Amino acid sequence: MAAINEVYDFLKKAEVYYLATAEGDQPRVRPFGTYIIYEDKLYIQTGKVKDISRQIAANPKIEICAFSEGQWLRIAATAVDDDRIETKQYILDQYPNLKDRYSADDGNTQALWLKDAAATFESFSGEKKTVTF
User: Fold this and answer.
1) Bridge-partner residues for 122, per DSSP?
2) pLDDT score of 1
3) For position 43, what pLDDT does the model report?
4) Among 99, 35, 24, which Cα is nearest to 59's?
5) Helix, strand or coil, per DSSP, at residue 125
6) Radius of gyration of the chain (CA)
7) Residue 6, class by beta-carbon neighbours within 10 Å (0-12 exposed, 13-18 middle, 19+ buried)?
8) Is 115:104 a contact under the CB 8 Å cutoff?
9) What ranges in 15-97 are assigned the alpha helix state H?
10) Closest by alpha carbon to 133, among 32, 66, 39?
């Protein structure tokens, strides 16, 4: 659990991270801001109507990159859909600003947890460190 908390704390400091998916042979990257720990798993949230949802359905391997205070974090993982209403509601409760666009039972809100995640912390001056969860 310590590894996932370390990753969560870094994402919190960074506030914004960049999520990469693949669309055929073309990488796609966009800024994101949702991340929570729920049932000892790191989750992100998006909408099923978005291109990212279709890209993850076709290829669930994703990468996340964030930068804060001279250090960066890269996470390689497989995104796994969790379609439970209670999971979606928990995420939306953590991000009330999303409730004007999403609801747990709208058929659009998508909760994804990161499976087989390898998170690498790096900087120009420090040692490279990788944790898994």
Assistant:
1) 72
2) 81
3) 98
4) 24
5) coil
6) 15
7) middle
8) no
9) 51-58, 85-94
10) 39
Write the class of the CATH domain 2-132: mainly beta
User: What would the two tokens of residue 94 be?
Assistant: 């953590």
Using an 8 Å Cβ cutoff, are 89 and 83 in contact? no
Residue 112: CB atoms within 10 A of its CB come to 26
Quote the pLDDT of residue 81: 98
Which sign, positive or negative, has the C-alpha torsion 128, 133, 52, 27?
positive
Q: What is the Cα–Cα distance from 19 to 63, expressed in whole angstroms? A: 6
∠ CA 83-4-23, nearest 5°, is 55
Tell me the C-alpha distance between 69 and 91, whole Å.
Answer: 27
User: Which residues are within 8 A (CB) of 14 and not within 5 positions of it... i.e. 6 or more apart?
Assistant: 66, 67, 68, 73
- Tokens coding 35: 């991340």
Longest alpha-carbon distance in the chain: 47
- pTM exceeding the 0.85 threshold for the entire prediction: yes
Domain range annotation of the chain? 2-132
Mean pLDDT split into 10-residue runs, the chain, 133 residues = 96 98 97 98 98 98 98 98 98 97 98 98 96 97
